[in-house]
Every structure is written in structure tokens, then in C-alpha cells.
Amino acid sequence: MKNVVFSLPGEALGTASSAVLLGDFNNWDIDKAIALKPHKDGTLKAKVKLEPGQTYEYRFLLNDGRWVNDWAAQSYVHKHHFGIDNSVITVEAEIPVEKKAKPRAAGKQKKTTSKTGKVAETVKNDLTKIEGIGPAIAKLLEQEGFHNFKDLSKATIKKLKGVLDTAGSKFAMHDPKSWPKQAKLAAAEKWEELEALQQELTGGK
Fold first, then answer.
1. pTM exceeding 0.90
2. Torsions phi, psi of 33, nearest 5?
């Protein structure tokens, strides 16, 4: 996990006096909201441990009931169903330390890795490796019978959207249209192609 600092300028508060952080990383659950602490420079900040290589949507909720976005977000995604924009952050993937290669016997193939999947065996059937799917959505999909990449690759967009909509507003805001295509590449262990596709996506779209 990697520490990520979220920051909100003091002037963004307006008439409010405090703010909390909500997003995919706490399932948009108000009971798990992360309080921002005021700093001497006038900003409000919160430190959160997030998984490297994952993309998360988030917003700030002020104590006067208003929602505000991160003024310095990496990007924003429009949620047509709600008529709002969410802030988006992609946590930078950690670069593994290179280990000195051991001599290989003639004809023995080196085990390949990729930025997206690292060693293929370590990510087999881990649905959170699909851009736009976090732990909460992965659990939801598993409960609906999508246990692995192959299952997800055969799903229709209509079926996936129905699962998200039925689970409530915090899930309905997600767009699953790229998930089957990503899952098909993952099931075939085409990690480089998956990585190239994910670099073109924001929050799974």
C-alpha cells in the first residue's frame, strides 16, 4: 500500500468549517468517511493508504452539506446519472527493485512479468486488476457469480450495469463497458495488451 495525501484549500470551505473524504477506497460510506485535518498553511489534508496502480474516484463532503471536488485532481469524470463530476486519482505503481538475474540453463525460458500483472500467476482471477474495479465491486461481482477473468469476459454490459444499479447509488455511478474487454485480455494473460488498454482508460472507461 502507498500513502497518498489528499488536500483541500481552506477557501474551498466557504461557510463550512470542516470536510471529510469519501470515495471508492471507503465505498462512499459516510460511516467510514476520512476527516481532513487543518494545517498551518490553511489547507485541510488527509493521508490514505491506497493500492499502487489502482484508479479511484473521490469527492470532499463539507459539514454544511455541500460536495466539492479536489481543485488539483489528476482528472475528473462526469457521472451522467447524477449530473456531477468526480475527482479521479491513479496511484503511481511501485517500481520493483531489480534483482541480479541468476544464470539460466540453456533453453530455459525466463518467467516474464508486466507492469499491470507482475507475475501472471500472482494476479490470476484477481478482479481488482481490472481498471475501474476496486475491492468492494470485486466482492459484489463475485457474489453475482463472476469469480474470475473468464466469467467477467463473457458478461454483457447490460448485466454488469444491472448488478451495479441494484447494489445502490455508490455502485451505480461506475461504468463497466470496458470490463469484459479487459477481462478477456487478462484471462488470456495478455498483460502488455491489457496495460496498453488501461493507459487509455480513466476509472475503467
1. no
2. -60, 145
